Amino acid sequence: MNLRIERIEVAVTSPGRNFVLVKVFTNQDGLYGVGDGTLNGRELAVATALREHIIPLLLGKDPDRIEDTWQYVHRGTYWRGGQWLGIGAGAHGHWHGRRWWNVRSPQRYIAAALSGAATTAGFELPDAEQRRVERLMMGLRTTEGVARADVAPLDDAKISHLVAAGLLTANDQRIALTADGMRLASAVIVSLV
Known about the structure:
Elements: E1 5-13, E2 19-26, E3 32-36, H1 43-58, H2 66-79, E4 92-95, E5 98-102, H3 106-115, E6 120-124, H4 128-139, E7 146-147, H5 148-151, H6 156-164, E8 168-170, E9 174-177, H7 179-183, H8 185-192
């Protein structure tokens, strides 16, 4: 039997509401894990983030692949074209089509934040073609590849050539780099753009 996460329960508990606890249930009877997600003063935000964003990502995953799971949750939205908040000196964010970067200096960032001034150093609003190319560049660097619909239009002749060269796998729904394709990812992606 392949071990999988079946459900995850979140509890905000203690006197008042200081602790965020999670219980991870597997498909093996009696096998579960318990974790702590406490962030004092932000317990309800953590519980909501877990319930609405993190738990749906984890269902069906192998609980023994801890590092893979952490990487998937921590960096997954970035690689899959999602949204993320950039908080902190030098951080980058992307939210509802707006991409920004914060001031690099921790001292300047802290001073701006404490004074109520903007902490961003700049921003951009990528157009549809820029978002498509970025989605292709990032999505192909994941093991599952990218949905064709998310990066259309694509040149079928170029895809066929890359498949024949052993650099790409493709079906009607997705394209993905092979192991050899991963080693040449930048060149493969440039040939598709």
